[in-house]
Amino acid sequence: MGEGGAERTTRVPELGDHLRRGGLVAAALAAGGFGADYALNIGLSRLLDAHSYGDYRVAREFAAFAGVAVLLGGDRAAAKALAGPFGRRDLAAVWEYLRFYLGLAAGLSVAVIAIVWAAAFFHLGPSDPDDHHAIAWMAVGVPLVAGGALISRALQSAHRLALAGLPWRIGFPLLKLGLLAGWAFALGELTVHEAVVLALVATAAVTALQWLALVRLELPRLERAPSQRHPRQWLVTSMPMMGAFLVALGLGQSDLYFLEALGDEKEVGHYAAASTSAHFLVVVQATIVGLVATVLQPALDQGRAQALDVYRRSQRMLVLALVPSAVVLIVAARPILELFGSGFTDAVPVMNLLVLANLAWAVAALAMLWLQYTDRAGFVLAVTGVTLAVDSLLNLVLIPRFGMQGAAASTLISVSLAAAVIVWMRRRHADRAA
Prior knowledge:
Structural class: mainly alpha
Helix content: over 70%
Shape: globular
């Protein structure tokens, strides 16, 4: 952030202590968060028909994608940019970072909403908004998603792991499920548009709760500190990280979009159920990487040897957590999918393929973080961009012939190749610097 000498004086948390303090919270968030989100998706699959459930998932993925895009990577780069200021208690610098990206996200969100609704009205006419795809309604929540993501990352950078993760990982899906079930019970039915509106209510509530937590911790300072603003430098770091994350996010979403366009629409809901189940590996990976992200940059500031020690110990922990989880998901695929309904067991082969794909990508996550924190974010962006292109081409070829299994196979092939390239590049980069 332009004060490199000051950052090198920041105390680096000892990795073992950091992981011990945060490990229990992280494990609880990973397990509890996945369980809560899984319960939500099972509830939705029961309250909506397969087609409507698929439409809801497409809309939700759009909001997640757009919510990250309008931040231009401010949430992705928060741990790198804010770990030092939080360690020094330089709260003015923290607040200027938040102020800049929240303002940026607000302006870009307005543009996204306007474009989506203009496209919806152009396609269907202004007299029938109830017939618009759920994406049009979900677009309204983009600024809420963006604000919540940035606030959560700020709390994580301050080592407030419970405050950062608990509201979104566990509280949000349970609140949303309660609202959806209550609405369906009171009115006797639930439409996809009503589900979207209730999801927006829950998003607003959790975002407001986390902002209140941030203010009560006195982490932001409301007064201006222009001398602490470094927007050009922040954007140089954050935008490649955003690009890589969006492309990786798009890998999962593109299958749903291609299936809706090229395959049986009923398969969209079945694929979504398999994807939700396999997503547990991503939850485990994100939890561990989130712990490591706040100590990797200070370790790099101290020296390459310390950073390599942090990386190797963290990678070992990541693999030990991921591999047994993947085995359990593959062995229990059928009973897991039966929770969504009897017809969803058609997606067992899809779930197995997606588990393997997520395993490959998750194992490479720390290598990706290393490259992004050592000025190789452009390489990561290029690899993920090529991966999305390869996945899209394979989807065009395989989905018409094999349906949802073709979509899952496309993801496995493209992601496995990308993960191998990223791990190889990190090893080559580290060896050169040694």
